[in-house]
Amino acid sequence: MKYLLNTSAMTVKTHGLTLGKFSPLHKGHQLVIETALAEMDKVTVIIYDAPETMLIPLNIRANWLRKLYPQIKVIEAWDGPTEVGNTPEIKRQHENYIINELKIFGITHFYSSEFYGEHISVALGAVNRLVNPSRKIIPISGMKIRENPFVCRKYIHPLVYRDLIANIVFLGAPSTGKTTITKNMAQEYGTVWMPEYGREYWEQNQVERRLSLEQLLEIAEGHLEREESLLYQANQYLFTDTNALTTFMFSQYYHQTAVPKLIELANLASSRYDLVFLCDTDIPYDDTWDRSGDVNRKTFQKQIIGELLARKIPFILLSGNIETRVTKVKTSLSKFQKYKPLLEIFQIG
To answer: pTM value?
Structure first.
């Protein structure tokens, strides 16, 4: 039921406001927003930068809100106060920022689950609308989620959860140990892994060891669909065996062209993965019936390297036996933080 403000002359439309860092957005936040949407004619959400809380950039967190609730107005507060607390000075900072810097006005109801609902609503001349302040309806907090998103994932929308997972891909020519290292790393970190869909598809659909242009597109689409679903099951990392870039290169190798949709998926793959490992050809070639020989393996490896360099995709080379490769991946992941610049992590340059 909509809240209405009655005056002697007219009925004023209601405008609800809520704010937060949403680091990350969880079902408790969503309850506040959805309550406001059910009760208000208009809803505005202010989202603050939170570098001291988590590395996920403000614009990514703001886009969660925009995608889930396209009917709300989202204000990105890049320069908002970062200090939180129940002191007079901190209260004044937040009130001044909202009213004088963001120039928020016309708010009839302020929505929150926090202590600050009282002083913000007074400053705005709005109704203090508390939602689930005891956390009994949805017993979760951002701090608990940050401690272990996997354990708390039932409180996180899939759209949000996938952005908390680091997608690690292993590339390389055929018979360079991609499947072995991918599966091994998933076991090491207690998570899921994405097998190479192309191998399964090829075995079921090849005719005289060849696939059509359209079938190669089906591989890329099928791989991406499975990979996307596994992101919601992953624990911190999803380890992925090859991607659409490899499929695109096979299309170029066998057909000297690729359908536009496959080109699009290959371009998407250029920025989809958080870390790219390239498996070297310094292990014995496994000459199975579905492969075309060691000479072709070495040629294809050169082409992969050329493609990565041309697309300016950073990659880490994995050489040596499986133990050496596992150690290098684990060392890299010990330094890695999603949303932190790779140049800073690995001290490149």
So the answer is: 0.89
